[in-house]
Design brief:
- The complex is a heterodimer of chains A (about 100) and B (about 150).
- Chain A has about 100 residues and is of the alpha+beta class.
- Chain A has helices at about 10, 15-25, 30-35, 40-55, 80-95, and strands at about 25-30, 55-65, 70-80.
- Chain A has one domain (about 10-95): Arc Repressor Mutant, subunit A, CATH 1.10.10.10.
- A three-stranded antiparallel β-sheet of chain A has the order 1-3-2.
- The radius of gyration of chain A is 15 Å and the shape is elongated.
- Chain B has two domains: about 1-30; about 30-150, no CATH class.
- Chain B starts with a helix and ends with a helix.
- The chains are: A alpha+beta (about 100), B mainly alpha (about 150).
- At the A-B interface, α2, β1, α3 and α5 of A face α1 and β1 of B.
- Chain A: It comes from Agrococcus sediminis.
């Protein structure tokens, strides 16, 4: 049975939204995630670090042919633990929100 | 007590709504990279055109272009990820059907091309090749758009 479990790490609004976007894809470019959420690099980095420390998000850097400098593209993805925790958290929110959600 | 519950319920509903709106925003940002879809179409056209140099019959050997074209498609798929900033993963049934449509169409056009070559109408392979380009480019776009719609839906 799939259980509902409230997760304090994920519950912060921006972290919930980060997980929500990453849950629907294999991985997202940091810049696309930042632009979709409408936040600054620093804000997103801070919350991604928190999720990484919890073992919910992984990041991987790859070279970018479209850039002449040494900057790299950072890919973000939910881990299996992150997917499980996010799904359980969403079920907990649905239970709290009631049948209309 | 009752008002606390109502407040929690409202906050939870808003959090769930924000997830839906974010998916909408992400899907809105993911445009079909038509230049790369055309590159997939060009690879399909090239493979179908390779039938013109084949020798249908008992001595038939499949051209090596099939493997090279497949490798090319993998490279283009990688470029699509780089271009769009997203690797979509699970694509959904509609995108899978469109992808299957590309395979079936290309196989059918390749078979027709071999038939044309055996009838000494090798020049007509240019037509099947052009059809392969158009259909593959269109279906690749349909598949990508369907995959984006899959992201949009919960």
């Amino acid at each position: 049975m799939r259980d509902a479990r409230f997760d304090e790490t994920i519950h912060a609004p921006l972290r919930l939204r980060i997980c929500g976007l990453l849950r629907r894809v294999d991985r997202l470019d940091f810049a696309l995630l930042r632009d979709t959420l409408g936040v600054s690099d620093a804000t997103l980095s801070k919350h991604v670090r928190t999720l990484s420390d919890a073992g919910y998000v992984t990041s991987r850097k790859t070279a970018s042919a479209g850039r002449s400098d040494a900057r790299r593209v950072m890919w973000l993805a939910l881990t299996a633990a992150g997917r499980t925790a996010f799904d359980a958290h969403v079920r907990a929110l649905q239970e709290i929100a009631g049948p209309s959600s | 007590m009752e008002s606390n519950h109502a407040e929690a319920s409202r906050t939870a509903a808003e959090a769930l709504d924000s997830l839906t709106m974010d998916r909408e925003r992400l899907a809105g940002r993911l445009r079909v990279p038509w230049a790369l879809m055309a590159a997939i179409g060009a690879l399909a056209a090239w493979w179908v055109a390779s039938a013109a140099t084949a020798r249908p019959g008992a001595a038939y050997e499949p051209p090596a272009t099939g493997w090279i074209a497949l490798l090319g498609v993998l490279v283009v798929a990688h470029l699509v990820q780089r271009e769009t900033g997203a690797r979509l993963g699970v694509m959904g049934a509609r995108a899978a059907w469109a992808t299957a449509g590309i395979l079936v169409t290309c196989l059918a056009l390749f078979s027709v091309s071999l038939g044309l070559v055996s009838l000494e109408l090798a020049w007509a392979v240019a037509l099947t090749s052009a059809v392969a380009f158009a259909v593959t480019t269109w279906l690749a776009g349909v598949a990508y758009r369907a995959a984006v719609e899959h992201v949009r839906r919960a």
